[in-house]
Amino acid sequence: MGVRREWHDARHRYAETGCVLVDGNHGSPAAAVFDALGGDYEAAFASSEAHRASLAWLLERLPPAARVLDVGSGTGRPTAAALAAAGHRVLGVDVSPVMVEIASRQVPDAEFRCGDVRSVPFEDGSFDAVCLYFALLQMSRAEQSGLLRRLVRALRPGGLFALATVPLDVEDFDGVFMGRSVRVTSFPAQDVIGLVRDAGLTVLSERSVLFTPAHPDAAPEPQLFLHCRRGETAPAG
Prior knowledge:
Elements: H1 2-14, H2 29-37, H3 39-45, H4 49-61, E1 67-71, H5 79-85, E2 89-94, H6 97-106, E3 111-114, E4 127-133, H7 141-154, E5 155-165, E6 173-177, E7 180-184, H8 189-198, E8 201-211, E9 221-230
Parallel strand pairs: 1-2, 1-4, 2-3, 4-5
Antiparallel strand pairs: 5-9, 6-7, 8-9
Helix pairs in contact: 1-6
């Protein structure tokens, strides 16, 4: 009942904002999954030391009052919450209206938009940093590559890019995530590194971990965290 109520509240709250909402039957598969998970997703990943360490890496290097894009911002925790608490200007984008509703309540000092990041417009060079934590996995390989290039163009020269994904060699794989059916596409670790380099980023550090979400239907998953910087020249394409 809690998830259904969150969806009901989100739908009515955003009806007056012009935000395009999708439902679980006719909209984005990713939106349907994360609408259903709601706050359970945050609880399942709350113990991730690697995610907190990645944020610490970013916070140590950002200029004061930096403008940061959080792609796939979820419930706003921990990423947007940590950045906003440090005085940075955060824009979170998520395809799930339930997640955007939760994030807006939990992190009122950040801005959140409900939409598909593949079509949300961004000005070139408008962000000091981009966070992309586990938001690629339900896109095709071509879409992942294209989105990375687009997000790098949205970074200012010298801007920072923090990325995390599940580095598996799978394409349109039908799996189960926290009890929900998902279709996953990803790359092995070296190919992920190659993608970010091709997009115009220099990899400054990388870390691989095995993490088990705190959920009865979750299984251990490999995770790759990359910390990168955009070059001074504009990326190609």
